[in-house]
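LOG
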Amino acid sequence: MAQPLASRSAAVEGILSRPGRLIIGMAVLAALLLVLPGRTVATRGLDELFYILDGANRVLSGQVPGRDFITAQGPLVHYLPALGAWLGGWGAALPVAVGVVLVLLAPVMAHVLTSRLDPVLALLSAAFLVLVLAAPMNLGEPMTALSFAQFHNRIGWVALALLLAMVLPPLQSGKDRRDAAAAAVLAFAMIHVRLTYGLAAVAVLAFILCDRRQRGWAALALLGAALGTLVTALIWGGLPGYLQATTTAWGAGGLLRGSWGDIIDHALVSFTDYVLLGLIAGISLWRRWSLRYALFFILCALGGFWIINHNEQRWGILALHAAAIVAAGRILREGDGPRPPILGNSAGATLLVLVMMLPTILHNGIALGLHVTAAVTGAGRPLPLPGMEGVRLADIWTGGDFGGANRYLGTVEEGIRALSALDPQPESLAVLGAADPFSAALGLRPAKGFMPVMRWLNTLGPTDHPAPEALFADAEVVLVRAGGSDPVRALYMPFVEGNFTLIRQTEFWQIHRRAPAARP
């Protein structure tokens, strides 16, 4: 027998009366779906995965990011996967890292969204943010392109979106301490993921300081984030190197990265999101004009574009989605009023946000489901690298990517065989022109002072790069990817050839060894 309409309405009201619990439940469920299988499944981006695991391996071997190796990524990008690898091996490194972030951000997300938004809008926004963070795929990629590459960008975007939502004053007063704590946690995370996001966090809190209604908690949040960063810097010890590597990266890449064609393409890919934000923001401002909110929407559009221009992703300016949430929140607070405009009433505002977010919710939800299914069933082949059998390469309707990844794995296997045959085994290894899965697989010590992630005009450039004398000072053996016209290789090979001896060459690799007397 069908449930009476009144009973169904009461059930819905009961669910919506506890949105905070539902949001925390979403985040915890997503974390469990990632962590419990204990495997990482990838269909592409193995080199990017190896870069992440290299940083984690360096941490586990006792190195400190920013002090013992050069990186423009914050310490959380390295310590979180290291924690995952320590707890569950290399197969669990990234699922545990993202799962930990989901669980830690869950109460912050629940507080921010439920304190400022209508329950329906809060739950919709939470589903969107949780799945953006949890789905193992780079934003803008097909749902079958499973990869934990650039996972730190998703952390930064989600934290930024939550902080931007805090521009809306809370629905009820008296929660300043919670607001300050939540904002401080978000700003701290953004600073320690990448300074691009850290600057955005400071800018958002400075903007909120201009609102006298929220000035108190915003000041406390800035103070808390600053103190947290100071204490972490004293314990961590790598902040100066982190700042220097970031300055080098900004010098190499410039204020806007890529050609004008790349820049225009970034804008065109996000054109639909800009149009939808323009609609809902325009309706919000038409109903009640505010210069402050008009400026906020413009800053989200421009600042979000600047951040994605510095990321390695084509789509996914979550600042636009956060601005749409704020615009819808303004409309819903006022109600329909005596003369609701077309598409400008409460239902229309929620519908526009749903249209903006639902494709990503479905897209990322399917991707997460594919990863869980593949991990549980053991789909694909385990990586043929010692200790990394928990990482699997799968073909999920990705024939081209799967074939390319298998060919890449073949080059890695060849490098492992060549290094294993060295007698004596090297004390320290640096890999030039490629990622380094070799140190973790063979139990070698990665060279200190090295820069693991070398991307031309991204982390280094012709005039902005680490000096080779410092970069290779601790390396006994340098493994170089053979062939090609890589500008990074061209930049550093004269030094390598002048200070190391070529002792072995394979189809894909050159092995250079420093003479014993020349080692420091």
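LOG (cont.) second protein
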Amino acid sequence: MAVKALVDSPIQKYLEALHGRVADLREGDLASYIPELTSADPEWFGIAVATVDGHVYQVGDSRQAFTIQSISKPFVYGLALADLGVERVLAKVGVEPSGEAFNSISLEPGTGRPLNPMINAGAIATTCMIAGDSPEQREQRILEMFARYTGHPMVVDERVYASEARTGHRNRALAHLMRNFDVIETDPEPGLDLYFRQCSVLVNCRDLALMGACLANNGVNPVTGVRALPEAQVARVLSVMSSCGMYDYSGGWIYSVGMPAKSGVGGGIVAVLPGQVGIAVFSPLLDARGNSCRGIRVCEEISRDFDLHLFHTSRSTSAAIIRARYDAMLVGSQRRRRLAERDLLAQHGARVRVYELQGELTIGATESLVHEVLDELAGVEVLILDLARVVNVDQAAARMLADLARDLTGQGRTVLIPGAANKYAFMRLVAQAWPQSQDLAIFQFSDSDHALEWAEDRLIATLAPPTDPTQESALADNDLCVTLSGEERAGLAAIAQRLEFAAGTPVFRTGEAANALFLIAQGRFEVLLPAPGQPPRRLSTLSPGMYFGELPLASGQPRSADVVARDGGACWRVPFAAIEAGLKIRLLSAIASQLAERLAEQARVQRLVG
């Protein structure tokens, strides 16, 4: 079957559609209090998402450079905490929300301490705390800190810096006022100048998404593996972003979007979902509070569409959701197959791929899964995603799995999702995201074993003339007779009795006395292990030319499983007592040889799937 090797990620497709919807929003104005910022193109608009697994998705003007402005504040605050420790920083800058604009004069009465490090006064005080023997050395340390977050060297936009320094009279007044209270203990001008320069560092939307992903990943850059911030300080930085990062809109933001975030008058917003992703938006048209209008809309829609609000549900990381992965070439279903069919599966079974999932599927976990599926998709015709061990699938994960299944189905592939029968919310979300799924049988199997059997049957049917289980297989052609002579086969036929079974009829039950073996002539038979209070577990499915009930021929033990006719069928019953001694030895030898092959295969499967 000719199909594409890869499909686009559901996250990428979602971002492209979201960008198209929000691009028509043209509310807001360019920042004017820094004259150089008015040169920005109001049409610039980029979105980027970076996961804790190091995958970055971007759309629009995501590589357009702009100045970081106030988004620098939480990251420089983290550097100050690392340099001086929590107590010394808290002595100079508080962590209480001001509820006022970014440039407000929010100082504690009597002490002059800024209320938090996200307003200008607190950020200036924080910058003055950065360790270094000279202004140049402190600036270099800040640039190196940003480089750890983004993965590349950082530079200052000198034109924006000059414009900001030339017009920053209010910030200059704040700095000198804090010097009066000894919040800033030395000449405030060098620290103020460094603050103007840190705000003028050039970034792009992709940089900001990675910076957010570093915070989501406990301070480690998920692409480079470099630690950008000590783990002990990550929660403190995210805390002040949650309560103060959006200035006088911080309460509304955490209420409606529900993620720690920081905005800047350059048009950027970065949001963080701890343990999952960093989200960044760039669009220079600002609302009256100095926040990007498109940026707020994008984050609201992403949070709503993927249910990312911190206080909606518990979260898990993306690690260890894939319990096992294999294809039908390495691991077969419990359906026992004859030699010719086994040979076909050994050659072509990679066309059927199974992922056994476990734990909680969230946006980060599912994004990681989708990425791996797409990387390993070449040549796959049937994809089986087993949810039997999954305890929860959130809204974001359901949407992404629905998008993946829809895209693969559109390519001519088949997607099966067994183990979802009791996950009603998940199936409802899939139906909402992909209404056509209701016309398909993606949820038809209760477990991956039956889904794998169906996929094997379909694959074998495309490679060889299908075996009709209603057609009778001669006793002499049975697998057990392969090594017997013609005379021995005739002797076996002479003592065999042909029995008919209706669908669902038991051949024998667990615990019954064992006194015969059975050679299948027609139909399919299931070997089932009963379990009190639960449906029986299928051990294997057998078809014409196979046999069952043979083990007690050597052991003399009672039946250890049920055997039931799956369809209407027929068997030859061979009484143990009637088998001549020499023939019994030949049969036991053939049984032992084939049993050894099956045990070796089961051991290999156990090593693969655990």
